[in-house]
Amino acid sequence: MIDIHCHLLPGIDDGAKTIEESVEFCRMAELDGIRTIVATPHMRYDTFPNTAEGIQKAHASLSARLEREEVHVRLILGAEVHLAPDLADRFRSGDLITYGGMGKFLLLELPYQQFPARVEEMVFQFRLLGVTPVLAHPERIAFFLDDSTRLGRLIELGALTQFTASSITGKFGGPIQSFCREMFEKGWVDTIASDAHDLRHRPPILSSAMAVVKEWAGEEAANRVVEGAPRGIIEGKSPDSFVVRRPPDR
Description:
The chain is of the alpha/beta class. It is built from 10 helices and 9 strands.
């Protein structure tokens, strides 16, 4: 399995606090059957103003430590980029971290409660730049929970979706779990990820959610959202080569 959203770089956001904890993140993930993890620390002005250089240094340091500790998990560079008006300009300037630093896919976080201004325009701008936004945890964004057709419009513009494992297993409550199941029925779920922040409450575990997805959508769909599509993202492939979904409702 491949986990494309995980806050395990030490001490730079609200995830792992120390490099020892980061190593334990990876050990736990490896035991769960995860072989590749994308480190996706927050990039947002107000709370976690991480720079590309700082994230790259933290990634390199942890990768070296994992090799010394003989933890057999591949660590990929990434970031969770919060929506802001200047993101396209920052991408052009090289200030944003994309998946694997390849400039093909970017994990985009929207505000949880506020109405996200000009989000459709932002997705369109990135697509013109050759970048596919991957929408982080849309099932926990009020904008989509209030009206799922808003998510459908972003999908039509070319955005991909990343749902959270804990949402699928019900840890964020019944309504959010029901929304996840509805999105699987619509065919709007491209990937699932742990969005892990700690070892207890938000751990780097995918197997439990994968079991639920098998019940909802079958084994082929479960494998696609934890391996096929995530692999396509980290390898920078064309979305057409790995995305399988029905068209959004009109």
